[in-house]
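Folds vary. Our protein:
___
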Amino acid sequence: MANEQQSDFWSGPGGQSWVDNQTQMDTMLQPLGDAALELLNLKNARHVMDIGCGTGTTTINIAKELSAGGSVTGADLSEPMIEFARQRLLDEGISNAEFVTSDLQEDELQPEMYDAAFSRFGVMFFDQSVKGFANIRSAMKPNSPIAFVCWQSPSHNLWHSAAMAVAKEFIEMPAAQDPRAPGPFAFAEPDYVNSILVDAEFKRVSLTPHEQEVELFSGQTVRAASENFARINPVIGSYISSVDDSAAATFFDALADTLSSYHKDNALRFPSATWLVTATA
């Protein structure tokens, strides 16, 4: 089954951890998503697609930005995240947004339905990226824009590389990992991202580097932040789920020791590096 591993993680404990830490994750990611969203002119958009919408913050923000008559659909693999996002619509009384549980790589989409598409870190998890983007393009009107943000290499994102250095002391990692395998950093190489979009028949592809400090788990001790941080990482989260409480606590302590140098003003603070990507269907 295509995307089975991603589906299992995001609809299982991984997705639930993101729901549990929704506010904290949005604090980290929203400024980066906003930088990409600013590259889309949504003033006259009638129907927007939010790819990998997660717990729904980006979709809700787009809904509030649209002019009268405009609507947005947020799509994600994760059942717990979509369920949480739908409840947010009810709580906030938003009527021009909807959420669907969908694998945008495999599911049949209505042709030429959307006149804009956006994603905040939701496009790097296809196991067949060209197929996924071609499917998305087929659902977009000709000449409509897409914008998304994705991570540069782990070496430029210490929030990940510092934690993974600790993880390697506890977890047996594959000898040679494909840097382009589905995951947060699959789109680290700009030429690779460009080739995917071109092969999916997008036009006018552009990538712009963006650097910004990010904040994680504000108001938490470094030990609590480290535990929550570990649970939202697919590799580390799987390890934590497979060991007993004592072994997990030992890992959390080691991670907290490493992350303590990044714990400032009652939050984890890291430099980040992303690509802001735009193209036209």
User: Anything to note?
Assistant: The chain has a mean pLDDT of 92. Residues 204 and 279 are 5 Å apart (CA to CA). The chain has eleven helices and eight strands.
